[in-house]
Amino acid sequence: MSDFAADAERIMAWADELAAFTEEPGKLTCTFLTDAHQRTALWLADTMRACGFDEVRRDDIGNVIGRYGADAGMIDPRRVVTGSHYDTVRDAGRYDGRLGILLPMALVARLSAQGRRLPVDLEVVAFAEEEGVRFGSTYLGSSAFVGRFDPALLERADASGVTVREAVQAAGGDPDALARPATAPSPAIAHYFEVHIEQGPVLLDAGQPLGVVTAIAGAERRRLHLAGTASHAGTTPMHLRRDAACAAAEIVLAVEGLCANVPGLVGTVGQLSVPDGAVNVVPGACVLSLDVRAGADDVRDAALARIDAAIDAITAQRNIDCGRQTLLRGPAVPCDVSGQAAWQRALSAVNVPAYALPSGAGHDAVMMSSVTPVSMLFVRCGNGGISHNPREIVDVADVALALAATHAFLLEGAGLGA
Predict the structure, then answer these.
(1) Domain containing 363 — which CATH number?
(2) How far apart are CA 251 and CA 270, in angstroms?
(3) What's residue 73's pLDDT?
(4) 330, 364, 389 — which closes off a domain?
(5) What does the alpha-carbon distance between residue 46 and residue 56 come to, in Å, rounded to a whole number?
(6) CATH number of the domain encompassing residue 282
(7) Of 295, 330, 365, the domain-final residue
(8) Cα 223 to Cα 270: distance, rounded to the nearest angstrom
(9) Phi/psi class of residue 190: alpha, beta or left (left: φ > 0; alpha: ψ in -120 to 50)?
(10) Are 166 and 33 in contact (CB under 8 A)?
(11) What is the pLDDT of residues 117-160, one digit of tens each?
(12) β-strand partners of 305
């Protein structure tokens, strides 16, 4: 969409500017309430004001919030919120999260320069924390925004012994305000949407620049502890071994096979270790992770049941004991049907096919869904879809299309949440 090309170029330049605020020279690392993080927040607030937002504020957790009021002719306009997170993983790419902040900022700058307003009160929220890198807990920013911050997290410490409470105080926030009983956002939020890079290769493989997200996958993570018998590698016959690593290898392949042909289902063993292993010892123990995700909880749970049955069969056949520990269980979050339809119409308006796909990654939209309907627009990634990596990239032409689609989406925004 050539009409938005200059705005898209501005977004790319902004992303480059923000990448200069980092904890590690030569790498983009910006974790919650570090100096780099606070400089990023200051840049965002200053740039929002320059874009023409009516109000810009920073809350106690460090979220930066800009409001662009509705057209004066609108009676009781709906409150629509958009945004994403500005913290990063270590040695990150520069578009994960941040694209969903910078894109609506550029759209407001465009509207303000033209003297135009939308049919909704639009809030753009730069969420302070989503990744969980510094304190090991995700969605700190969005949970505080919707009044669902867990006060127990204030006493959680980082690797240097600094607590969340101390970090919030040092940044000028009030931790006691975060600990107060939850209250619903006021006025009520009619709809939340998030523009985000896909963080995967699906759109790239399909040749599609944009995609409408159908659901954010629900995940279950486990740790498996396999116990066999450590024995001498030279003197223990093959048929008498209780090899925990061989059982683990079969489990890894079973997870792959059982998740391979179900649309929207993924299963991963990302960690595997042999404690106290040695080159001349039959492994007596093995610890491995299991991560299963799907856009529908029943699909995920059915897969877990099949995987459990396979694990039982493998361990019984090899005479291996297996302990299972659940680390995380999060429900799937379906995207609002009316929101999906609005995105489909917006894509049609800019002559882009309405390609639909689920999100396998978590987003701030998960937390926002506790108070309002949510929707998401994905933007195609280059470099094979890689993300959380300095090779993460988006094409400026795709960003221009996303801007045009978001503009079309918001022009009919009075109907969102109806």
Answers:
(1) 3.40.630.10
(2) 12
(3) 82
(4) 330
(5) 9
(6) 3.30.70.360
(7) 330
(8) 11
(9) alpha
(10) no
(11) 999 999 999 999 999 999 999 999 999 999 999 999 999 999 99
(12) none
Q: Determine the pLDDT at residue 186.
A: 82
Provide the domain count of the chain: 2
The total of other beta-carbon atoms located within 10 Å of residue 222's CB is: 18
Cβ–Cβ < 8 Å for 119, 418: no
Closest CA to 209 of 406, 397, 6, 4: 397
Q: Respond yes or no on whether the N-terminal peptide bond of residue 119 is cis (omega within 30° of 0).
A: no
Residues in the chain, pLDDT under 50: 1, 418
Domain extent for 132? 2-216+332-415
Number of CB atoms found within 10 A of residue 190's CB: 20
What span, in angstroms and rounded, lies between the C-alpha atoms of 387 and 347? Answer: 24
